[in-house]
Structures are given as structure tokens and as C-alpha cells.
Amino acid sequence: MITKIQRVAPDSLREAKNFIEAGEVVAIPTETVYGLGGDAFNDEAVKKIFAVKGRPNDNPLIAHVHADYDLSKIIDYDPPYAKKLREAFLPGPLTLVYPSTGKVSPFVSCGLNTLAVRIPAHEGAQAFLREVDIPIVAPSANLSKHVSPTSAQHVYEDFQGKIPLILDGGVCVGGIESTVCDVTGEVPVILRPGLVTKEMIASVVGACEEYTPDFRSGEKVKSPGVLYKHYAPRCETTLFGANALADAVRVAKQATAEKRVAVLCESDLLGAFDGLNVAVLDLGKTGEEMANRLYGMLRTAETICDLLVAVEPREKGGVMTGVLNRLKKACVSVDIPHENV
Question: How far apart are CA 325 and CA 85, in angstroms?
Fold first, then answer.
């Protein structure tokens, strides 16, 4: 199969629609990351997404719709506070998990009676969704557990020869996946953190809780990005806490004797690695900047180093909750005794 990359335009949108109607999957841009899209009503198309990605079949998908789509076709109950959240944050990087009407393929939610729905803000995504005018399930367009893609080229690197079309909408501005929020209960519950924060949600509806998975209970999760190691670059990684900077410097220095080493941390900590023979990956200063840069930096790391030494940002809460969530799933945390250095 030949994989084409085409800018979002009337001709490419028509071609994408034809592929979707034929049961194929195509890669689409969003403001967060690129997605691997297929017809949510088509069992075979949904199964093809799982197969192409190598995605575990108990990891639910998110249905993407355009801003004017009639949600009553696919959700069974729309609580008043969910309407407030849509008015405040959508289109945007927020996914809401509702009771499902059961109209989409059962493979979308992995047998659950819920459905995760998102209305992306990206103009190219909206144009595509209006062209097809059906819910499109679209997990991140990367091979399972690899770093999520924030450019069409990233998608091509993982799926060359495996999908027919990548719609190129430029580099994603958000950089990490959407916040996923369960709205099936009395109050919203964040299943996966992202750019729409717990504090932002609570400011609109008065309360917001966070989900803590119990891996021993056998409970089925309602959201992607909860149970599995994700976002990992194809190089060795070590992740240090923000209070273990000296240990990170020591490990990086020792490793340069045998390996190509890169360092990933926030801008203000980079000076600690001055004088070492390491590549420097500047994560930025603010939470939004770090979210925007993270996946691109992880993709760069796998091409330039054998070992990535990462240091957690010092700031916690807000957008940083999502950044730290992705960083911890991408890198192997280490527990090394502190030395006076």
C-alpha cells in the first residue's frame, strides 16, 4: 500500500471520505495529536484500527464529531453539567464519557455501555468531520506504546505502507492528548489529565474528581491512556524526580563514557548539565510550552541518543498534571541513592 501525505483541502477531504466509506482508516490532524480515524459504525473499520496500531482490545476508543453533530444519536443521557462543560471548553481538547445509545460498533468501547466523545478544535479536523458527517473513532496515530505523533511526518514514520492517506494539518499546537472526563455520575471525574485541567472544570461546574485505577480489581477502564505504558521513545530512558537533579547529572556524566546521551528537562534546569558531552532537549518554561514540546522531544531523542536522561519539571498541578502523566508513562523512573555532589 502507498501512503500519501496531503494537505487538508477540498480534494483531499473528498478522498479521505471515500476511504472512510470503503472501511479504510486515515490519519487526521487535531489540536492535540494526530489521530488514526475510522467509521465508528463499521465493525471492520474499528477492528482495523486496533490491528494496524497493535492496540490492546480492552483499550477504548474516542469518537470524534463536528461541532453541530446531533449527540443524541450516540449518547443516551446528557447531564446538565456536561452541557456546561461543552459550552465552556468545546470545541477543544476535552473528551466526555457518556452513557451510550449502543449505536456505534461495540468494539469502540470494548464492550462497555459508555462512549467517549470529543469535538476537536482543529479546523482541518472539523472540515474532515463535516465532510464525512459521522462519528470517527481516532486514537493517536502511532504504533501502540510508541510516542504520540504531533506532525504528519511522525505518522508516516509509524504507518508508511499501512494506511492509504495522512491528512496534513500542520504541527499540533496542544501537544498531549485530550483530557478525558467521565460524566456518567453526579460529578465529573477525570480519567486522563490533559490541557483542560481539574481546576478549570471545577470552576465551571463546581466540583471535579480524579480517577485512580485499581489494577488488581480487573475493572474495565472507560478511557484510553490509563492502564498501559505509553508514549515511549525507542531508546533507553531514565526519569528522575525534580529533587534528584544531582543524581541525573551524575548518571548522565557516567553514561557518556559508553553511550550517546541526551538530557530532557525544563529550561531553568539545563544549566546543571553544562560541560557534559550530552545533547540538550529543552522542554520549555510553562506547562503549555512543555505539553507542546514533549512528544516532539521524545521523538527527537530516539534518533540522537542511546540513553535519555529526563528530569521531572518542578511545577505540579494544572496542565503539568497531564505533562507529568505522559512523561512518567514514557520513561523509566529510577530510585538512586543521593550523593553529595
Answer: 23
Angstrom distance (rounded) from CA 174 to CA 212: 24
Q: From 331, 67, 79, 59, select the one nearest 183 (Cα to Cα).
A: 79
Residue-wise pLDDT for 72-129, tens only, equals 999 999 999 999 999 999 999 999 999 999 999 999 998 899 999 999 999 999 999 9
**Residues in Cβ contact with 318 at an 8 Å cutoff, skipping those fewer than 6 apart:** 197, 199, 287
Q: Provide DSSP, 154-177.
A: HHHHHHTTTSSEEEE--S-SS-SP
301 in Cβ contact with 313 (< 8 Å): no
Of 220, 125, 222, 138, the residue nearest 177 (C-alpha) = 138
Domains held by the chain: number: 2
Q: At 300, which CATH number?
A: 3.40.50.11030
Q: Which three cell numbers stand for residue 5?
A: 501525505
Do 151 and 22 fall within a single domain?
yes
Distance, CA of 335 to CA of 318 (rounded, Å): 26
CA atoms within 13 A on the CB side of 18: 8
In a 3-state reduction of DSSP, which class is residue 70?
coil
Model confidence pLDDT, tens digit, residues 213-266: 665 555 565 555 555 556 889 999 999 998 999 999 999 999 999 999 999 999
